[in-house]
Backbone:
């Protein structure tokens, strides 16, 4: 929506620094409070913070929170989690002395049998993404049951756009829900900056990294907003700090808040349905091309995987597509050796039927 740029370009938001002085920062603090409230609505969680750097660092922070809360050192990470997010988790884990174990996939989703074998009384949390890197929707309720049986936590990374039509992870047993708010009206800007969100159940509120804006009253009984429960090392003794992450992405969180307020509940449902319908139309269209197949049968949202004809190199196909002015799908062989010749396709509400047909026609001509 065009209104986003009009709001975030206002100088009082555009040039604002951290609202340490609440008495002169009420507008900024209220905007962040609205963001937290929206994230709680979307994720089905009790408390959300004032935002994080991005979805990957939010997932890594969730792993360290789970370890501190359970006093356990093992994290189980599904191989269907975004490869770069898994790298961020490993980087954090190394400094904290945590053991990261990857759980393989089956049919494009986490292999529940392998997960059941891997879960033990040493497991702090299982980290999953739904919709996952392949676009498939995970069985969160079943995963939650598995990890909760051993008193571990379930961390879910999610696409906020999907939550207009999918059940909130908090309703399916998630203890921590994270993700990237970039789809919520934030410009892609050549890869960043973006805005991560982080929401938890009431039990873990005091361990949450970053900042929380709280609602209070002044001495005259008027509603006001303040920074509260700050748990990083700048505000508390170093050994008691939960995280050293500091800056939130307030301007980008504001973008997300404006997007959500303009879209409203019905708008979020409609945009979710458009993503779903257009991706399924594209999958049918691409699946009808001779030699192209759909390797997974798991339900999916707005991303899906196609398998190109045997011996076809994705990089070569993408080079040919680029000459036609089309950015092709992601080459899954780059991150998963077993998926050589597979392409990840994403279709959002921004794509038209004509563009999808044009892409299908171009792909057919390149293979």
Residues:
């Amino acid at each position: 929506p065009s209104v986003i740029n009009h709001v975030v370009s206002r100088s009082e938001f555009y040039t604002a620094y951290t609202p340490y002085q609440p008495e002169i920062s009420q507008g900024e603090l209220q905007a962040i409070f609205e963001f937290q409230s929206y994230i709680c609505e979307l994720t089905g969680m009790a408390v959300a913070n004032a935002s994080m750097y991005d979805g990957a660092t939010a997932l890594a922070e969730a792993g360290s929170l789970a370890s501190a809360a359970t006093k356990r050192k093992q994290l189980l990470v599904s191989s269907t989690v975004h490869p770069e997010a898994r790298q961020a988790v490993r980087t954090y884990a190394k400094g904290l002395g945590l053991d990261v174990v990857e759980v393989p996939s089956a049919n494009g989703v986490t292999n529940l049998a392998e997960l059941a074998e891997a879960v033990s009384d040493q497991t702090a949390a299982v980290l999953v993404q739904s919709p996952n890197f392949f676009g498939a929707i995970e069985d969160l309720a079943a995963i939650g049951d598995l990890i909760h049986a051993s008193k571990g936590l379930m961390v879910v990374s999610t696409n906020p756009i999907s939550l207009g039509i999918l059940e909130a992870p908090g309703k399916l047993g998630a203890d921590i829900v994270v993700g990237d708010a970039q789809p919520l009206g934030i410009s892609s800007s050549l890869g960043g900056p973006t805005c991560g969100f982080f929401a938890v159940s009431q039990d873990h509120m005091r361990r949450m990294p970053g900042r929380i804006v709280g609602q209070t009253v002044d001495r005259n009984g008027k509603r006001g907003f303040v920074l509260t429960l700050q748990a990083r090392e700048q505000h508390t003794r170093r050994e008691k700090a939960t995280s050293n992450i500091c800056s939130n992405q307030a301007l980008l969180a504001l973008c997300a808040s404006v997007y959500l307020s303009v879209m409203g509940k019905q708008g979020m449902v409609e945009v979710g349905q458009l993503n779903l319908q257009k991706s399924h139309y594209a999958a049918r269209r691409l699946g009808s091309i001779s030699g192209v197949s759909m390797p997974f049968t798991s339900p999916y949202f707005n991303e899906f995987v196609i398998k190109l004809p045997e011996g076809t190199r994705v990089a070569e196909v993408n080079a040919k597509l680029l000459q036609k002015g089309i950015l092709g799908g992601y080459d899954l062989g780059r991150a998963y050796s077993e998926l050589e010749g597979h392409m990840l396709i994403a279709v959002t509400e921004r794509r038209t039927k004509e563009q999808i047909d044009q892409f299908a026609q171009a792909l057919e001509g390149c293979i």
